[in-house]
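Why does residue order matter? Because the sequence determines the fold. Keep that principle in mind as you read this record.
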Amino acid sequence: MKAAVGHRRSVHAEVMEYVIPPVRDMLILGRKAPIGCIALRRALELLINSPYEHIEIAEDDILSDILVRSSLLRRFPREELIRFVLKDIKPMMGPDEVLHVTLDVKVQIQTRVDEIAQAG
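Structure:
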């Protein structure tokens, strides 16, 4: 079928490499998300070497689960992470969504030299 005179069609496509892992730090699942936590955990296990921790959010009408890279929980305590998600991310989320979250966690350590000498 030919386009009518005076009509133009164009296609713009961006092609890029699929990045593995598709999840860097954390996924937050809504209560009515189209994919469940078990299916996502299985997919992550197949695609990613680093383990993810499952945090279930009970009795919440919006959030269901958090899948977070286990290594992050060594720098960001579990309860603080849950509070952060509930306070700062939940208001932006609907129950049918799955959000991918990238976290930039920095820990500052300050110690006195004489404390190091006493410990050694």
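Residues 109 and 115 are 13 Å apart (CA to CA).
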